[in-house]
Amino acid sequence: MDITVLIMAGGSGERFWPLSTKERPKQLLKLVDQERSLIRMTVDRILPLVSAERVFIATNAIQAEGVLEELPVIDPKNIIIEPAFRDTAAAVGFGCVVIGERFPGSTMIVLASDHLIKDEEGFREALSVAVGIADSRIVTLGIKPTHPETGYGYLECGELIKGQPSRVLRFCEKPALEVAESYLESGRFLWNSGMFIFRIETMMNAFKKHLPGHSNTLEKISQLRKQSSISPEFYTQSLRELFEEFVKISLDFGIMERFEETWVIPVDIGWNDIGSFPALAEVFEANQNGTISRGAELREYNSFNNIVISEKRVALLGVKDLVVVETDDALLICSKEEAQNIKKIL
After folding, report:
1. Do 227 and 300 belong together in one domain?
2. Residue 301: which residues within 8 A CB-CB, separation 6 or more?
3. Residues 303, 167: one domain?
């Protein structure tokens, strides 16, 4: 199969501060595996399906060096550096331009760099199904919900059969709890994983129809990249100026919700986007008090359901549902309930 892969790795991972920083964001951390970062796990997960020369990483100049250190298997010319963050529609469009030059006509798989997937074989099987139907369609993977989650977007579908393609009827924003409960009870909704599979030509045509401003800018970028005589400095400056033309909009809002042939493969693959510290409760086994501890020499008394990450001795007395994270230069203490809001204090 003529497959290429674009791994999105430009996020700052602010909800994992102070572990995650702009220079060393969540995807570069060995958060789950002591030997491999999240982005390395993502690349290793996809390599049985596609060769390393067909795997591209979309990131920024601040993080590019760290990405290369984590991924020695990836050729540096496969690192796509965005000069400015203009959201995922711009990032995917730019990736289509760059990858389309090297592998025209290929079917592209877009993945996040920081997701956890337990059933990796089932994941690759679902991607193969998606590639097989991604002719004039844009396909995504939809996660079978396990609980009424309010932190994810949802996809409403027709009949859902695991592993079988289904048309997406509508995209639903992150719901209130009672709405999420109704979604779960109906059996017609899936979590939106943020993974996309499409032929490059199909996506570029979708830009022309639904985001014509993006399409015009992408054409300018394509023409700029064809000018072999320009200096690297001129190219970098011109690319930065063109990126400023992009209106900030996600691929979901800009394309997926408007596209006529959006399909989904329902999957149950042990997926977790590890979006904030409380999500670690789904990854690691808790102690007898319901607490998850990483690195710390921990003592607890009358304390329950906490998350502690530190290399020091930590004592908890009479507290519950806290997140305690310590690094060399910072200390975070917050309630699990407020953990989604960490970026508001940065």
Report:
1. no
2. 315, 316, 317, 318
3. no
| Cis upstream peptide for 232 (omega within 30°) | no
Last residue of a domain, one of 251, 275, 299: 275
* Residue-by-residue DSSP string for 210-272: H-HHHHHHHHHHHHHHT-TTS-HHHHHHHHHHHHTTS----HIIIIITT-TTEEEEEE-S-EE
Domain that residue 322 falls in: 278-345
Distance of CA 6 to the CA centre of its chain: 11
pTM of the entire predicted model = 0.92
CB distance 259 to 171 below 8 Å = no
CATH code of the domain in which 127 resides: 3.90.550.10
Distances (CA, A) of 250 to 8, 53, 56, 105: 13, 27, 20, 24
Residue 313's DSSP bridge partners are: 297
Q: Which tens digits make up the pLDDT trace of 231-286?
A: 989 999 999 999 999 999 999 999 999 999 999 999 999 999 888 899 898 889 99
In this structure, the answer to whether residues 245 and 201 fall within a common structural domain is: yes
C-alpha R_g of the chain: 21
